Amino acid sequence: FDLDALDPQDAPATCCHEPGGLRLDEMLQALALLPRERLLAAEFVELNAQLPGAERTVQAMAELIRACVQPTQQAAHPEWRWAA
Q1: What's the structural domain count of the chain?
Q2: For residue 6, which of 11, 20, 28, 67 is within the disulfide window of CB 3.0 to 4.6 Å?
Q3: Residue 13 is part of which domain span?
Q4: Cα–Cα distance list, 47 to 26, 69, 74, 79 (Å)
Q5: Which of 22-26, 40-44, 50-54, 60-64 shows the lowest mean pLDDT across its residues?
Protein backbone atom coordinates (compact mmCIF):
# COMPACT_ATOMS: atom_id res chain seq x y z
CA PHE A 1 0.00 0.00 0.00
CA ASP A 2 1.44 3.34 -1.07
CA LEU A 3 0.76 5.61 1.91
CA ASP A 4 0.94 8.76 -0.18
CA ALA A 5 -2.33 7.69 -1.84
CA LEU A 6 -3.95 8.78 1.42
CA ASP A 7 -5.04 12.36 1.91
CA PRO A 8 -2.30 14.37 3.72
CA GLN A 9 -4.74 14.94 6.60
CA ASP A 10 -4.36 11.25 7.40
CA ALA A 11 -0.77 10.62 6.22
CA PRO A 12 1.22 13.87 6.18
CA ALA A 13 4.72 12.32 6.35
CA THR A 14 5.01 11.13 2.76
CA CYS A 15 7.07 12.50 -0.12
CA CYS A 16 4.26 12.89 -2.66
CA HIS A 17 1.13 14.33 -1.10
CA GLU A 18 -2.20 13.56 -2.72
CA PRO A 19 -4.65 16.29 -1.64
CA GLY A 20 -8.14 14.89 -1.99
CA GLY A 21 -6.70 11.37 -1.84
CA LEU A 22 -8.27 8.42 -0.08
CA ARG A 23 -9.30 9.08 3.49
CA LEU A 24 -8.12 6.57 6.06
CA ASP A 25 -11.65 5.58 7.03
CA GLU A 26 -12.49 4.87 3.37
CA MET A 27 -9.48 2.59 3.04
CA LEU A 28 -10.29 0.81 6.30
CA GLN A 29 -13.83 0.15 5.07
CA ALA A 30 -12.47 -1.28 1.82
CA LEU A 31 -10.00 -3.53 3.66
CA ALA A 32 -12.81 -4.84 5.87
CA LEU A 33 -14.38 -6.38 2.77
CA LEU A 34 -11.32 -8.40 1.70
CA PRO A 35 -11.28 -12.12 2.49
CA ARG A 36 -8.25 -12.64 4.79
CA GLU A 37 -7.81 -16.28 3.83
CA ARG A 38 -6.59 -15.04 0.43
CA LEU A 39 -4.26 -12.35 1.78
CA LEU A 40 -0.70 -13.69 1.64
CA ALA A 41 1.34 -10.53 2.10
CA ALA A 42 1.07 -6.77 2.40
CA GLU A 43 3.64 -4.06 1.82
CA PHE A 44 3.40 -0.50 3.09
CA VAL A 45 5.64 2.12 1.49
CA GLU A 46 6.32 5.87 1.30
CA LEU A 47 6.55 6.72 5.00
CA ASN A 48 9.21 9.36 5.64
CA ALA A 49 9.65 9.46 9.42
CA GLN A 50 11.80 12.61 9.16
CA LEU A 51 8.91 14.73 7.86
CA PRO A 52 6.42 16.62 10.03
CA GLY A 53 3.39 14.52 10.88
CA ALA A 54 5.35 11.26 11.07
CA GLU A 55 3.52 10.15 14.21
CA ARG A 56 0.11 10.59 12.52
CA THR A 57 1.32 8.74 9.42
CA VAL A 58 2.69 5.85 11.49
CA GLN A 59 -0.64 5.70 13.33
CA ALA A 60 -2.51 5.51 10.01
CA MET A 61 -0.15 2.80 8.77
CA ALA A 62 -0.67 0.81 11.99
CA GLU A 63 -4.45 1.02 11.54
CA LEU A 64 -4.12 -0.27 7.98
CA ILE A 65 -1.88 -3.15 9.07
CA ARG A 66 -4.31 -4.04 11.86
CA ALA A 67 -7.15 -4.04 9.31
CA CYS A 68 -5.18 -6.49 7.15
CA VAL A 69 -4.64 -9.02 9.92
CA GLN A 70 -7.84 -8.88 11.97
CA PRO A 71 -10.77 -11.16 11.18
CA THR A 72 -12.96 -9.96 8.37
CA GLN A 73 -16.57 -8.89 8.32
CA GLN A 74 -17.00 -11.87 6.01
CA ALA A 75 -15.94 -14.26 8.75
CA ALA A 76 -18.75 -12.91 10.90
CA HIS A 77 -21.16 -12.99 7.94
CA PRO A 78 -20.52 -16.12 5.80
CA GLU A 79 -23.28 -15.06 3.41
CA TRP A 80 -20.94 -12.24 2.29
CA ARG A 81 -18.24 -14.64 1.04
CA TRP A 82 -17.23 -14.31 -2.59
CA ALA A 83 -17.35 -17.33 -4.86
CA ALA A 84 -13.95 -18.88 -5.56
Answers
A1: 1
A2: 11
A3: 3-80
A4: 19, 20, 30, 37
A5: 40-44
